[in-house]
Amino acid sequence: MSSIFGILLALLAVGFGMVLKGASLSALNNPAAYLVIFGGTAASIMVAFPFSEIKHFPKLIKIALFEPKIPSKAEQISNLVSCAEIAKKEGILALEEISTNTNDPFFKKGLELIIDGYDVGFIEEVLLDEVAAIDMRHKTGALIFTQAGTYAPTLGVLGAVIGLIASLGNITDVDKIGHSISAAFIATLLGIFSGYVLWHPLANKLKRLSKKEQELKLLTIDGLLAIYQGISPSSLEKKLTVYISPNERKKYENKIEEDLHEKTA
Length: 265
What we know:
The protein folds into two domains: 141 residues, no CATH class; 107 residues, no CATH class. By secondary structure, the chain is mostly helical. It is elongated.
């Protein structure tokens, strides 16, 4: 929810800042400025990207504002260790039930590949290609927001120029020219605000989410290949905990100890 709180904080900061500077909030009621900035940004994005990529824009907004639920690294390590225990006791084919029940398509695909008995090198290549394809799609999505953040401030200057042209038409009327100049710079305000408070930060959020997902998938690949090669559950646990920070590792170890204590109690 940090994105939503950040946007609200930015709106409050700009609003109070305008009041403290003596500017009236009613000046923001400028439909022409909103049309130039948001309409112009949308038009620029349409010119820069095909509709096949732009159609995902609403979905990307939702992802950036409401982070999708994915397992933590510690949870995934626990899942993989459980798989290693099953494979050690009952064999690789016993993992088919987990493959059927999992909701993670990537994890499911990896389990199916090792259950079907493909070569280790082939499995690794297929899963890494999958990660690379996901990375490419995520980069494209983030690039849309990055470009919007680049276009919006420049369109703000364009909006200010349009407003100044209009104000010159009222140069003989002191009251009207003052109002027109004030309105002209609202477009600049909206352009800078939307570019550096909305589009660029949302692009960074999408990049961070993408990196987090890719790290989880690389951990999963490492774990699945180790299980396929017959590594013991305890060795797998030691191997995979290098993916988490020392603090997370300590929490993970404490949770394992608690689970063992509950089982033996």
